[in-house]
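Ticket #4471: complex job returned nothing on first submit. Input attached below:
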Amino acid sequence: MRRRLRLSGEAENPGEIRPGGRTARTRESVCRSTLQVLAESGYAELTVERVAERSGVHKSTIYRRWGGIDGLVVDALAFAVDDDWEPDLSGNVEANLMEFARMALASFADPVYGPTHTAVVAAAFQSDRAVDAVHRFFADRFGRTSTIITRAIENGELPKNTDPEAVIRALMAPIYFRLFISRQSVTDVDLEQAVQAALAAAMAGVFENQERR
Amino acid sequence: MRRRLRLSGEAENPGEIRPGGRTARTRESVCRSTLQVLAESGYAELTVERVAERSGVHKSTIYRRWGGIDGLVVDALAFAVDDDWEPDLSGNVEANLMEFARMALASFADPVYGPTHTAVVAAAFQSDRAVDAVHRFFADRFGRTSTIITRAIENGELPKNTDPEAVIRALMAPIYFRLFISRQSVTDVDLEQAVQAALAAAMAGVFENQERR
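Support reply: We reran it on our side without changes. The output follows.
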């Protein structure tokens, strides 16, 4: 079965609901509150106090479990796109990357996840805390998505020493560039071009890891 | 002679000073004031009134010649990196792109141009006016830099229908991604990889313009 990115606004498949004890309910409440504050008021207004008030979870619990704003933001972003998400590995590397790129682009249009992600990228221009959140977010995303590349290496579709993160970064960079830097629209043709460009470079050995040679 | 990116902080070569009438002096004064306000206070504080006050140029003149904030920002960014700048075309396409990438990266470290450019990218998260400025800035930059690619096509280094902007965007996207999105450092190795990746994709025909086929 294909796994897809489940966004926070969507209903869960009833068969998939996990029992979820008190800890899970606390997390859900805190993450939802974090996302709401971010989407409504932006990163500048996000404080542990506001999340505590909105979620009804005591702020000492939030500090203990999330450490503070950074931890909250990273976990809320992970929560919004489904903690259990793993990339689809059912096709060839090209199909799997295209599927991932389409999902990533769609997620920016999600009413909660989109503005939250944008708020964090915007906040990194002003706040070192937000920079930390951004670092941790991309480390997590790149880590999960890298399995598309490691699988392709195993299958002989890409050179042996290819650095998975470099391929994913090459794929995502033009998409982020259009969305957040040059502020141009992103079409399916652009996604296709990004996939083809990343693969052509990987196949030419541009992303071969020097250290592992 | 190699042309290089002259940044606003640098002294001009005395032999290169153009006579510059009153119009040129007005422009210089207005652009410098715009850059100063942007670097000191950010885009949110940039008004025609403040630029008029700082430069001593009447605001009706500024509105007439620049149209408003957008026009000011685009012209100030062009002024800061030398209006006459053209890319170095003296090497092969790889050498010319690497030279350009190095210059672009160095410009982000410039005390006036760097913060100004960053302020405009940051402002686009909040202001449609800034989005317009960003569009016009990249149209100008991509237009100028594209000659590296058109020259390479003429020389038979790249496929005939290669879209120059697509190659430049592929080159710059990972650099902007690291600087402004994932907030990672950019080394010479990263620049080299970006050049190689953009060229590998171009050589594989990924950036061939469909319409012109």
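The radius of gyration of chain A is 18 Å. Closing as resolved unless it happens again.
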